[in-house]
Amino acid sequence: EDQVTQSPEALRLQEGESSSLNCSYTVSGLRGLFWYRQDPGKGPEFLFTLYSAGEEKEKERLKATLTKKESFLHITAPKPEDSATYLCAVQSFAGGTSYGKLTFGQGTILTVHP
Amino acid sequence: GAVVSQHPSWVICKSGTSVKIECRSLDFQATTMFWYRQFPKQSLMLMATSNEGSKATYEQGVEKDKFLINHASLTLSTLTVTSAHPEDSSFYICSARRGGSYEQYFGPGTRLTVT
Question: Is there a contact between A106 and B41 (Cβ–Cβ < 8 Å)?
Answer without folding.
Answer: no
